[in-house]
Amino acid sequence: MTATLMDGAALAAKVRAQLKDEVADLGSLGLATVLVGDDPASQIYIRLKHKAADEVGIRAIDKRFPADTPEEDVLELVAELNEDYGVDGILVQTPLPAQIDEAKVMRAIDPMKDVDGLHPFNAGQLFFGRQTLVPATPVGIMLLLDEYRIPVAGARAVVVGRSLIVGRPLAMLLLHQNATVTICHSRTDDLARHALDADILVAAVGIPGLITADMVKQGATVVDVGITRTDAGLVGDVDPGVAEVAAHLTPVPGGVGPMTIAALLGNTVRAARFRQGLLAFPRV
Ligand code: NAP
Description:
By secondary structure, the chain is α/β, with parallel strands linked by helices. Helix content is 39%, strand content 17%. It is built from 9 helices and 11 strands. It has a 6-stranded parallel beta sheet with strand order 1-11-8-7-5-6. Helix 1 (8-26) runs parallel beside helix 9 (256-275), helix 2 (40-56) packs across helix 9 and helix 6 (136-147) packs across helix 7 (167-176). NADP nicotinamide-adenine-dinucleotide phosphate binds at residues 137, 160-163, 165-167, 184-188, 191, 204-207, 225-228, 256-257, 260.
C-alpha cells in the first residue's frame, strides 16, 4: 500500500479563498501578533502568518520586543491590544523568554480576541464541548480529516504529544467527535503498542522518525504534526517508510503546517464575529 497524501496546502488554499469572501463581508479585520526575542523559527512563523493574513484581507499588526523585555511590558501591550477597537485577534508567539510567565500572558488576553485558544476560558469551553476559540493546529487537522472523509466516530485515535497547543486540544476535538482517544507522551511505556492500535495516529512531538512503519496499523490515517529543521529541510515525526503501511498520511511540509495558518485566520474571522455580535460569546 502507498498512502494517499493529505494535501494540506491545497485545502488551506480553499479555506483561505472562502475566508477572503467572509472578511470582505465583515469589513476591516485586524490580527495583532506579538513576538518577544529573535527565535528564528518564530520569526518565520510570524512572517507566514502575516503573509496569509494579507492575502485574505486581514490587517496584520506586527509587535516586537527584544528578548530581555520584562513581563510587565508584554502585559501592558496585551492590555492595549485588548482595548484597541481595530484589533480582532491577538496572538502571542511562543515560546516566550524565561523571564515571562506564558500562562500569565495568555490569561491577560481578552478571551474574545484569543485566536490561539490558550486562555483558560477558551480551553475550558473546549473541555466542556462548547468550542469558542480552539488552537489552530487541532482545528486544521480536523478539517483535513473531514476533507478526506476519514471516519472519526468510533475510530481508535492515538495522539502522541500532550502540549496545550496541539496534543491536548486535538484529543478533545477527537473525543467530541466520538473517537476513542489515547494520549501518549514522553513517559508512555511501550509507545508502539498504543500506536499500533490506532485507526488515526497523530504525532505531535518534534522527534524526526519517531513513528516507524512497524508502529502503524495497515490502512491507518497518520497525521504528522512535527516540524524539525534539518540540513535536508523540514522533517516531521513520521518515518517515510510509514507511507507503505498507512492509507492516508500528511506530508511535511505541505500537510498540517498550511492548515494551521488557515485555521488561525479562520479563528480571527470567528473572533470578529463574536465581537460584532454575529455569534454569541458566552459571558466570562
Ligand atoms: P511540545 O510542547 O514540545 O510537546 C511535545 C510533546 O511530545 C510532549 O507532550 C512530550 O511529552 C511528547 N514527547 C516527547 N518525547 C516523546 C517520546 N519519546 N515519545 C512520546 N512522546 C514524546 O511541542 P508542541 O508545541 O506540541 O509541538 C510538537 C511538534 O509539532 C514540534 O515539532 C512543533 O514544531 C510541531 N508543530 C507543528 C505545527 C504545525 O503547524 N505543523 C504547529 C505546532 C507545532 P511530555 O509532555 O511528557 O514532555
